[in-house]
Amino acid sequence: MKKETKRTTIYDLATRIGASPSSVSSVLNGTWKKRRISAKLAERVLQLAKEEGYAVNAQASLLRRERSNIVGMIVPKYDNRYFGDIAEKFESMARLRGLIPVVTCTQRSPDLEFDAARELVSYQAECLISTGATDPDRISDFCHAAGVQSINMDLPGSKTASVISDNYAGAFELTQLILDRCERELGWVGPLRFVGGRLTDHNTAARLQGFLAAQRERGIAVPDDYVMAEGYSAKKAEQLLANFQPTGATGLFVNSTISLEGVVSWQSGLPDGGAMIRYGCFDWDPFGSFLPGNVGMVEQDVETMLANVFNLVGKTESTTELIKVPCKLRVFGP
């Protein structure tokens, strides 16, 4: 039978160094300067802790503190540049503010979102940021009952503050760009097709409104079956376009980089490689500028959105404020 190795404790470290357990504890939890413990002793404690493989019991430590400084975030996907950028910048910006960031992916599942929220609250997160959540109000209600601040990002809720992109204005601008390029380069004036997203999703609905308004302004009527919004997946986008074989010029508004994968796959299978197609995408990926027929993309301003989120973190007053952040239109080609 293998002998179990005894874990090093604060008391073991204190005995080895010849200091009090409270002094060692202060060094390990970062409060030694407030207690006027010497830098030399702190260095010795940290070096010995490293040599002994000592790890702070985070949960026990949190119970002894008034604040955890933990701020949690749930995101729906990691394999998407937009959400990946949010997660990466969130961690960096949180650390700059002396906060401990924790991020978890929930795969657009309402149950996984709620389970993640409960777990983060159980670890004494002081604020929970729901990014792209399918049911943000359920999470907000739970957080409110637990005495934890909640903020929505990307998709809004009605129970707490939300920071989102100005989806309508971004879609309006992108639609104008696609129409302009279709007319100038192909001699074609629309209507465009809308591909990707879910009509029950706030962002898709707002983008669709901007898409329709930009065409209505030019006297272009969009047939109902030109709105092809049955999900974000690449496979779904390709399936929706499978029976569409354009015989002339045409234009598409693509509602995410995920859907764009399906559009490009469909386009590559056309007899002429889709030479008479022009499209734009709401979402940004630098590789998009190299795709044939892509005239532009809408980049959501992640850094400004997160700056607004962090301005709300720690505020005690309840608010249902909706903050809309302008997008950036990236134009490709002449």
Detail the poorly predicted runs.
58-65
Rg on CA atoms, Å? 26 Å
Mean pLDDT: 89
Q: How many helical stretches? A: 12
Q: Can you tell me the CATH superfamily of the largest domain?
A: Response regulator
Question: How does CATH name the architecture of the largest domain?
Answer: 3-Layer(aba) Sandwich
Strand order of the largest sheet: 2-1-3-4-5-13
CATH class call of the largest domain: Alpha Beta
Going by helix content, strand content and strand pairing, the class is alpha/beta
Explain the layout of strands and helices.
Elements: H1 10-17, H2 21-28, H3 39-52, H4 58-64, E1 70-75, H5 81-96, E2 100-105, H6 110-122, E3 127-131, H7 136-146, E4 149-153, E5 162-165, H8 167-186, E6 193-195, E7 197-198, H9 202-216, E8 227-228, E9 230-231, H10 234-241, E10 250-254, H11 257-268, E11 277-282, E12 294-299, H12 302-312, E13 322-325, E14 328-331
Parallel strand pairs: 1-2, 1-3, 3-4, 4-5, 5-13, 6-8, 6-10, 10-11, 11-12
Antiparallel strand pairs: 7-9, 12-14
Helix pairs in contact: 1-2, 5-12, 6-7, 8-9, 10-11
How would you describe the overall organization of this protein?
This protein is an alpha/beta fold and 334 residues long. It folds into three domains: 10-56, no CATH class; 70-160, Response regulator (Rossmann fold), CATH 3.40.50.2300; 167-299, Response regulator (Rossmann fold), CATH 3.40.50.2300. It is 43% helix and 18% strand. The chain contains twelve helices and 14 strands. It has a six-stranded parallel sheet, with helices on both faces. A six-stranded mixed sheet has the order 8-6-10-11-12-14, sandwiched between helices. Strand 3 (127-131), helix 7 (136-146) and strand 4 form a beta-alpha-beta unit. The N and C termini lie far apart (74 Å). Mean pLDDT is 89; it is low at 58-65.
